[in-house]
Amino acid sequence: MVRVKHRYLVVNFLYPAPVAKSKTPLPDLVQIHSPTPDSFHAGVLARLVRDHVEELFGDYGMGMVSTGLKVNYWSPSTSTAIIRCPRDHFEMVWAALTYITRLPKPSDVPVVVRVIRVSGTIRKAEEDVLRRSHVIIKRAKAWEAKDALPMLQSVQKAADQERKRENAVLAQVDAGSEDEEMSD
Question: What EC number(s) would the UniProt record show (predicted)?
């Protein structure tokens, strides 16, 4: 039996233009790492990637990529995603992501999609997402004035939730390995 091998792309969505006009100007770091609009979700992201792969590589690219393409993780507050794709054709997905310049309607926001990391395991990809969100929070706190920024609070809340989820998964894995040792 042949095992299908995958690659995991850690993807970051950056917003170069301000989404909404505010009275107080946001620091560039906070503005470029803005939360993604609610109308854009994991299903729309998967469809967007498939459409761009088909546009760039035609039916061949679509056939090679579509069976293994999946959005494993999507965080609108940090504008970060983990996309699973076939190992032999991850470059096609990467190229398609690079050519995305706008979110689809109804959002229709200019965006820069940046592939941050290519990983062979989902665990390392998740660790990288957590590490990067912590770095963004620290850098944004350095810019933060007396008033707490709503975006910063949203990112920090999402990072805390992700940390709790990861700790729960690790606790389940540890508990499962202890049960196996006791049964042996």
Answer: 3.1.26.5
Q: Which two tokens stand for residue 106?
A: 């109804």
pTM of the shown model: 0.72
| Cα separation, 175 vs 147, whole angstroms | 43
Interatomic CA distance for residues 48 and 42, integer angstroms: 10
Pair 35, 76: CB distance under 8 Å: yes
Q: Look up residue 114 and give its two tokens.
A: 């940046």
User: Residue 78: inside a domain, yes or no?
Assistant: yes
Number of independent structural domains in the chain:
1
CATH code (residue 97) = 3.30.70.3250
DSSP 8-state class, residue 102? B
Q: What is the pLDDT of residues 9-34, one digit of tens each?
A: 999 999 887 655 555 566 666 677 77
For residue 170, what are the domain limits? 6-183
* Cβ–Cβ < 8 Å for 60, 74: no
DSSP state of 68: T
Any domain includes 1: no
Is residue 8 helix, strand or coil?
Answer: strand
| Kind and range of the H or E run holding 183 | helix 150-183
